[in-house]
Amino acid sequence: MTQPAVATVDARAPHPRREAEREIWQAGLAAGLGDARDLPLDTHLHTMRSPDALPDALLDAYCAVALERGIAELAITDHVDFDPAAPAYAFSTFEERERDVRQAAERWAPHGLAVRFGVEVTYELRYEADIRDWLRRHPHDFTIGSVHAGAGSDYVPGRVAAFLAGKSLAEATAPYLAEVLGAARSGLFDSLGHLDIVKRWLMPLVTPGQFAAQPELFEPVLAALVGSGTALEVNASGLRQLPRETYPPAETITRYLALGGRAVTIGSDAHRIGWFAFGLGEAYRLAMEAGVEALAFRRGEDRVWVPIGAVRSGPDRAAERGSDGGPGGAPASGPNTGHSASL
């Protein structure tokens, strides 16, 4: 799908990144990126149990839209941080998150929608032992490990320009990539979240094109994913953010597969209802074109391959589904019957 022109980051705006990304999101909606339908899975979603989610990021709202759109299965992956200074440290309890998701799963299962209890853990090398112990004591259906830029990070807008001064791209990304490599090697997670989100933090000082010219930067991480069996996430949120491409882009997905990688997950990383499934169809298309035929997923003790099938989008699909059960006129058939194979 052809993207609209890049939005300009105006340094005079109160929140230049926020304003630019609102324009990108709205342009993407006009271009059809919000029309994803009839997809098997969205593995990355945040509710109000995440501190950076908007007030409309309600679990039942996601479920209603998923049912209307024919998106058969959701993983709710609210943030958990281990740095006491980080926003998701003790923001919500394991018990609260599990109760919300398990109760939603019971409510929506009769309508044919599967809802899984997941988590997105902020990985930091210094907390790896704590994360390992916590995950052992707090089982989830599905886990994502990601690296984020905290308030004290050199990658935040107020510091990044000074941090970049005089550095090569390899030097500028080294602190981030060291953490990502640790997450990939750890074997703690089912999937590694938004592999190259550092692109967003460095824009507009560094462009995605400059990253594309140095693919070797991510080669050790891709090899580590293959070695540990951790899945590569294709995260659609970059399509509504400054890079305007998935994390990672198509070329990186292709390289991962060439290195022997098989496990891939796809998620929208929504933090508000308007971002639900935004760019998800495009992420599926890119994965399919790279050669991905099925997604790796875990439903608690069951590790499965979920076939992608044909990606179909557009409002005309709503009429084809009819109104034989469930809210929003979505069908009441089960989402996984006969369509998953054990890993």
Number of structurally distinct domains:
1
Q: Give the SSE order as H and E letters.
A: HEEHEEHEHEHHEHHHEHEHEEEHE
Mean pLDDT over the full residue set: 89
The 3D shape can be described as: globular
Fold and architecture overview:
- This protein has 343 residues and is of the alpha/beta class.
- Helix content is 36%, strand content 15%.
- The chain has a single domain, classed as Metal-dependent hydrolases (TIM Barrel).
- The strands form three sheets. Strands 2, 3, 4, 5, 6, 7, 8 and 9 form an eight-stranded parallel beta sheet that branches. A three-stranded antiparallel beta sheet has the order 10-11-13, with no helix packed on it.
- The longest helix is centred in the middle third of the chain and has 18 residues, at 169-186.
Offer a concise description of the structure.
This protein has 343 residues and is of the alpha/beta class. It has twelve helices and 13 strands.
